[in-house]
Amino acid sequence: MLRFVTRHPRLVLAVALAMFLLLLPGAGKLRVLVSIADMLDAASPQAALQTLVRDAFPGEHELTVLFKRRDGAALNSADLCAIRTWSRRIDFSSQNIDWLQSPFGFRVGKEDDQTLRYPELVPLDCEPGSQVAAASPLAPLNNSPLAGIVASPRGDAVIVDLFLRGATEDGTYGNFDPALVTPLKADLEQTFTPDGPLRASIGGSAACKWYFVESLIKDQGLNLLVMLIVCVSVRLIFGTWRGGIIMALSLVFTTTILFALMGLSGTPVDILSNSLFTIVALATTEDFIYVSQAAQDAHPHQGWRTPFRRQLLPCFYTSISTVIGFGSLCLSDLAPVRRLGFWAAAGSLLEFAVMFFLVPATMAIWPKLRLYTASQLTRTSRGLRGMSRVQLPRPLFHGLMILFGLSFFGALRIDVQDSIENLWDAKHPFNRSIQDLREHFGFSGSIDLVLRTSTSTADQRQILETVKKIPGVVKVEDPYAVLDFASQDLSPLRRDILHREFALAKSYERWFSSKEPLVRATIFVANDDIRSLRPIRAQLDSICSGDKCSVTGDLLSFAVFSDSVIRTLIESFAVSMVLVIALLMALSRALGKSGIGVVIVSSIWGPCVLLGMLPLVIGSVNFVTCLFAAVLVGLAGDSAVQYLFAHRRGSLTDGLNQRGLGSLQMTVVAVLASFAYLTSSFAQPRVLGILFASGYIGMLIGDLWILKGCLRSRRDLTI
User: Fold this and answer.
1) Residues with Cβ < 8 Å from 13, sequence gap 6 or more?
2) Domain ranges (residues) in the chain
């Protein structure tokens, strides 16, 4: 095949260019999912419930605006008037707000012999010059069901909830459009300036999605930084800029085709598949470095095709090991995991085709590109070669092997833990809004309890009372309690009138659906991490048994999604490791190599030690550690394949001596590229960058020095 490529390079490039241009429009159709609810499997019960609730109740995206004084004092009448004026103006002027909940819109029933009135529970006279300083203007809320929900117990903070409409059709970010939040946030900042007495912070699901999109846009240059670091690293290692440019262009071509195919097939990018660029970049870097090392080792008379021909088969099998590692994820029941597995495997095969078909075809047409390495080892490579020849002292080798054994005990202590707050630093505006909620209201987030009207009202009330007693539940927004409070001073006849008239109000739709036989209550929880939510979910499932009620909401979807995805990935890693081991055994037998046991031990030493020690060091696993593990498993066995093929007629030691430098060069480039993630706007990629760097070093220790130690121990036993 390589011979055909170099004999007909123009045909190969013409076909590739035509394919590129044909698929390129698909890149513009690529969607990015920022809502966990959109990432749920369409056939899952949670997704079906989420869709039902979305259709039944207005206001799909909740934007929570918390107001407090900058000096920390209680809010006075002037402060509340300013907040009320803003909320009414926004509600009137914006077409994207389904409805608004605040301390100022709640009314109660009052009657006398002749009239039935609905005065505001929190009366404010906001006419200029008429404001009377009240000792506690929010005091009327203290005994209401909304106490501690729209106003803090101390009266030093209030919440205005804006419930925004979802997009009529899915756009770039699914059902969420950042334009829903951008003008509201800008108006808020313009109205409540830093030199004013009030400070406003935004939270809720809409704010989370808006900040997520903002961070994605800020991180657009991160991939370019990765390629720049790789180009500089390749220049230092191989002595020319051409090599880095060739590799960078190969990566751009591969990832453009990959994401265009995803766009054309309607496959969105989600929180898992967002790592595809990293996975493909690693595969491209690995193949190119081994080809470049083979080019430097080749004799001048052998020709520029020889390195590609020699690396064609070993790089094919390293790609196959990646396909096996990620392809096993396609068996998952979870759509995001299946997407990650399929497209990572496809990206690996596509990268191999670009590196061994398009790059040689390009070099066949432009001879200057064939000089992509210096004729002699650079100073950097000479230093790395010296490191590759180092043998570990026996005590250190034995200590590392003991660590390998202990790692299996660490794997038994794996605990799944994550929080939406982990996306950003503690000082990020979104996390500060959650901190404000905890400080002033005692809760971090909310989930929705959806009751079915087929259950009697008495049973629904009993369910709500039971939910209020669950540990970790701070408050419950009980629609029946709200109605009872609003009509408590009315006679039975006028109480019925209030209920009928309330049913005509827009706020009624917040709790009682007119489209489906459903009633919604909101549960406010103290903590938003999945470990804290797990027992609450279990008790709610028990209370709602028999289809009496259901639990939904973005926070709950995040908890369910995180638990399911992380546990599925952990289980899949074990399967992937077994498949990689089977591939190494098959290759060893086909090539007639002995000592496959030490090859397997050295290949799995890195992933096992790093993953086994993570629970002991970090204490839990989350999305970051799972993506880190996915990349490690994808790389497992790649160096071993190179060693097995390096000297087909020689010993494994000969192959190790010949390709050990390539393993070290690959690690250096990968570690340096990992530092690009330290510039991310998200907190998790910065952690991921550190984990990647340590992971590549750990993999190198296993692939190179643990294997050397095992081979030395085997020779000692033979002697």
Assistant:
1) 358, 361, 362, 365
2) 1-30+239-376, 57-216, 392-412+562-668+677-719
